[in-house]
């Protein structure tokens, strides 16, 4: 099964992508992981991406598409995959369609995780990270530490990342609405989109997603 997962920042795409990929026994392909893997392995594409990121630039569509196409062509993805963070715009969506068509394949479903904008801001702006270990993450409302500002695990100081500040989150949402959200209508015209409310515990959102996938619901 070939699936695209889309939704605004803070919708829980990464969490759901990992869970769904495991349930369906298909690889979870994210652009962030692709960039890191290619940079770590020193591939030609990775060197180009690393140079661009080092200078603070945005990775061009053609590089992102090339990396995604290379990953989807690998043996473990021949039975399907779940794309997370790609495509990010209409141009990438059309390139994905063309790449799949060339391989005699097509998408089976597009899962649109829906979360109200105010909830997105609350989810992200409420996050607090541990300065000693970034894997220790808390939330002022949903998962507060026992002592304010102190990590329960190691006693490190908790802080709010600049990227998580409310004004920054709203800017990220504006970019999402302008660049990425239009792909939902693009895929809806192909009859591929299922919109799922992500206002629920993680296992329930996973259940809702599995329920709408063709052949599984």
- SSE class: alpha/beta
* CATH evolutionary superfamily of the domain at 2-115 and 180-212: P-loop containing nucleotide triphosphate hydrolases
Q: What is the third-level CATH name, the topology of the domain at 2-115 and 180-212?
A: Rossmann fold
Q: What is the radius of gyration?
A: 18 Å
Give the low-confidence spans: none
Strand order of the largest sheet: 2-3-1-4-8
Subcellular location: Cytoplasm
Keywords: ATP-binding, Cytoplasm, Kinase, Nucleotide biosynthesis, Nucleotide-binding, Transferase
Enzyme class: transferase
Pathway: Purine metabolism; AMP biosynthesis via salvage pathway; AMP from ADP: step 1/1
Mind explaining what this structure looks like?
- 47% of the residues lie in helices and 15% in strands.
- The longest helix is centred in the last third of the chain and has 15 residues, at 166-180.
- The strands form 2 sheets. A 5-stranded parallel beta sheet has the order 2-3-1-4-8, sandwiched between helices. The protein has a 3-stranded antiparallel beta sheet with strand order 6-5-7.
- It has 217 residues and is of the alpha/beta class.
- The mean pLDDT is 93.
- It has a domain at 2-115 and 180-212: Rossmann fold, CATH 3.40.50.300.
- The protein is globular.
Task: Walk me through the topology.
Elements: E1 2-6, H1 13-24, E2 28-30, H2 31-41, H3 44-54, H4 61-72, E3 81-84, H5 90-102, E4 109-114, H6 117-125, E5 127-130, E6 137-139, E7 158-159, H7 166-180, H8 182-188, E8 193-197, H9 202-212
């Amino acid at each position: 099964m070939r699936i695209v997962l889309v939704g605004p920042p803070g919708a829980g795409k990464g969490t759901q992508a990992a869970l769904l990929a495991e349930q369906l026994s298909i690889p979870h392909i994210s652009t962030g992981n692709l960039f890191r893997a290619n940079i770590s392995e020193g591939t030609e594409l990775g060197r180009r991406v690393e140079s661009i990121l080092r200078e603070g630039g945005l990775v061009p569509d053609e590089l992102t598409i090339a990396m995604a196409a290379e990953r989807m062509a690998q043996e473990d993805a021949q039975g399907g995959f779940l794309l997370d963070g790609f495509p990010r715009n209409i141009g990438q969506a059309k390139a994905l369609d063309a790449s799949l068509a060339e391989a005699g394949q097509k998408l089976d479903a597009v899962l649109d995780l829906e979360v109200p904008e105010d909830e997105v801001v609350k989810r992200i702006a409420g996050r607090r990270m541990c300065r000693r270990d970034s894997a220790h993450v808390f939330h002022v409302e949903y998962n507060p530490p026992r002592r304010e500002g102190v990590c329960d695990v190691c006693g490190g100081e908790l802080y709010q990342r600049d990227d998580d500040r409310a004004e920054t989150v709203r800017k990220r949402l504006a970019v999402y609405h302008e660049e990425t959200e239009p792909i939902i209508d693009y895929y809806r015209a192909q009859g591929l989109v299922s919109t799922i409310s992500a206002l629920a515990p993680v296992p329930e959102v996973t259940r809702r997603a599995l329920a709408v996938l063709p052949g599984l619901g």
